[in-house]
Write a structure and sequence with these properties.
By secondary structure, the chain is mainly alpha-helical. Among the domains are: about 100 residues, MazG-like (Helix Hairpins, Orthogonal Bundle); about 50 residues, no CATH class. The chain is built from twelve helices and no strands. Helix 9 packs antiparallel against helix 10 and helix 11 crosses helix 12. This is Nucleoside triphosphate pyrophosphohydrolase. InterPro entries: MazG-like_dom, NTP-PPase_MazG-like_C, NTP-PPase_MazG-like_N, NTP_PyrPHydrolase_MazG, PRib-ATP_PPHydrolase-like.
């Protein structure tokens, strides 16, 4: 059997090859003659969903406190950067070295209190304000003149809502008191009820979106991250519903064999048990 050129590439099979090894592997996977057909067929748009998914899996490993999983998920996320830069290199757009240089330059520029002559004796809030000021200068240099320019469309909707609201708040477009946000929630909820009874599905969806947007704003005013809060609520729901299923299984039954009243009682029991063990 004739060896392929890749079999002679000692770097690919070197367990200590580090970052150059990963770059070489990605290049080999995308090789038009000898690479993987699936990898060759991909482009930026088809890989983007995997990039988002891997970022969430990193967050999931952190939330679970599983550091072995975190190591693996960080590797998966790193691979996404390598994948995109390999495709960019093939298209003559930029290279991995360009990406590394740009982020290194950005970190140095955005931390003048560490790498420059500014005083680092600042609170985290002061440093955050300085960071935002530097980012605003960068946006101005890119001719992003509008307040909301540069807020990525592809962000999760709740996260993007908060970022849009923060940008608007910087120029004074914000409720001065949390009570006014609560009043707005009541108003939007009433409009949603009215839409449910009298309007089309599209109009109901619009009113529902308005309510979610204001709920995100309430979280911002309360200092609560809506994305994190909903993630925690999802975990709590899963945990308690699993307890309901376990209780039914102990009786030799499934949720389909039960009814809402019984499952609601088991839910309350699971909630009470959690509170006792906290």
């Amino acid at each position: 059997m004739t060896d392929t050129p890749r079999s002679h590439d000692r770097l690919i099979f070197d367990p200590h090859g580090g970052m150059p090894r990963l770059l070489a592997i990605m290049s080999a996977l995308r090789d038009q003659q000898t690479g993987c057909p699936w990898d060759i067929a991909q482009d930026f748009a088809t890989i983007a969903p995997y990039t988002i998914e891997e970022a969430y899996e990193v967050a999931d490993a952190i939330a679970r406190g599983n550091h072995d999983d975190l190591r693996g998920e960080l590797g998966d996320l790193l691979l996404q950067s390598v994948y995109h830069t390999q495709m960019a290199t093939e298209a003559g757009l930029f290279t991995f070295d360009d990406v590394v240089r740009d982020i290194a330059n950005k970190m140095v520029a955005r931390h003048p209190h560490v790498f420059g002559d500014q005083n680092r004796d600042k609170t985290p809030d002061q440093q955050t304000a300085d960071w935002e000021a530097i980012k605003a200068q960068e946006r101005a240099a890119r001719a992003e003149g509008r307040t909301l320019d540069g807020v990525a469309i592809g962000l999760p909707a709740l996260m993007r809502a908060v970022k849009l609201q923060k940008r608007a708040a910087r120029v004074g477009f914000d409720w001065p008191d949390v009570a006014l946000v609560v009043d707005k929630i009541a108003e939007e909820a009433a409009e949603l009820v009215e839409a449910r009874d009298t309007m089309s599905l599209a109009e109901v969806a619009e009113e529902y979106g308005d309510l979610l947007f204001v709920m995100a704003n309430l979280g911002r005013h309360l200092g609560v991250d809506p994305e994190e809060a909903l993630r925690a609520a999802n975990a709590k729901f899963s945990r308690r519903f699993n307890a309901v299923e376990d209780a039914l299984a102990a009786m030799g039954r499934r949720p389909a064999d039960s009814d809402l009243a019984e499952m609601d009682a088991l839910w309350d029991a699971a909630k009470a048990h959690e509170r006792m063990t906290d």
